[in-house]
Structures are given as C-alpha cells and as structure tokens.
Amino acid sequence: MADEMVRQAQVFINRTYSSRIGMTVEENGQTSWNTMYALTRALQYELGITSLSNSFGPTTLAAIAEKYGKIDASNVPSADFCRILQSALYCKGYDGSAIDGTYNARVQQSVTQLNANMGLSVVYPGSALWPKVLKGLFNMDAYVTVNGGSSAVRSVQQWLNGQYVLRKDFYVIPCDGHHSRDVAKSMLFGVQYEIGMADGVANGVFGPVPSRA
C-alpha cells in the first residue's frame, strides 16, 4: 500500500540528490531497498564521503561518530541532512513530521520511540540518534512485531540490543519477533562476551576459541 509521506520522501531524494548520488528512486510511496540505498547515499554525501555506497558500513558509521558523536536537535548539521533523517523515519513507519528540515518535537518523539522499539531506551535515553541506531534506521529491518512474529522472540531481540549494543562489533538487530541468522549470530556474540572474549576477538561464530573457553 502506498504511503503519501514515503512518496514525498522519494520526491525529495530525486529532486535534491539524483545527480549527486548517481541514482533515482521510483516515486510510488512504497519503501524498498532502492529507496533505503538512495537515502544512505544521500547521507554519505552530506557527511562528505566521496566514494558513495549502498552500504551503511564502517566508513559511514565512523564519519558520524567522529563528526557529531550523535545527532539531535542541538547539532543536526543542515536542513537537508535533517530531511534525510525525516525521510528515513517515514520509510521505517515513523512520523517524520513535514520533511521540512527541522528536528522538531514530532521527530524527537519518533526517535525516542525508535530507540524504545530497538530495546535501547536505557542505553540511549531521549531523542538522539546514535551511530548504530542510524545504521539500523537506514535498512529494511523492522523493530515492531510483523507477520505473526512472537512477542517472546521480540523481547529477546530487544534484550540483546540493549545488553550488547555498546560492544564494538555488535550492531542493532531486528526486533520483529522472528528468529533469523542475524539473531542467532547476535546470541553467539552474547555468549562470547559473557565468557570474556574481547572486542575484536568475539565474532559471532561458534569456532575453536569459544568452544575451548
């Protein structure tokens, strides 16, 4: 089903960034990987990254952390940067306000809800977007129960995020109530952290090192 605000986000992407990011998106009001890729590239452009990519990878994550630490109403870099965030919120099913370039109360409320849905309210209280939360915002993962997902599984997913998101190699996982390879890998990370494996050593793989510990 088409969403008018997602369509407006797609219009914004095409009008503002198509020549800058080397791609356009269909203005159909439906969230897709192509739309998220375009938003990721637009964000990278605003961060000053010259080699744009569909992937929200280490370079993008590091650029946000080094330049801003976190994004909130006090330091959002520009109106277009904020419009990218507002567009991403709509594509994830949250209220992004009027896509007007202001990190206003509606945007702040949505970010607070996003953090809560990810299970990060204790770690990241308030309405700031931290780098790993931003990474989770710019993909197709869901942070609410979808398609008959289990509330019990979702609770586990949220707990894992809240417990380990501050570890270097742990990234926000979906909280959709469905078990997946990402969830299984995150559990292995948790086991490795709990037996004392350091950041950079823990890898989410059940291999020789964790089996000996």
Automatic annotation (TrEMBL):
Record keywords: Hydrolase
An example molecular function term from Gene Ontology annotations: hydrolase activity
Hydrolase is among the record's keywords: yes
Protein name: Peptidoglycan hydrolase-like protein with peptidoglycan-binding domain
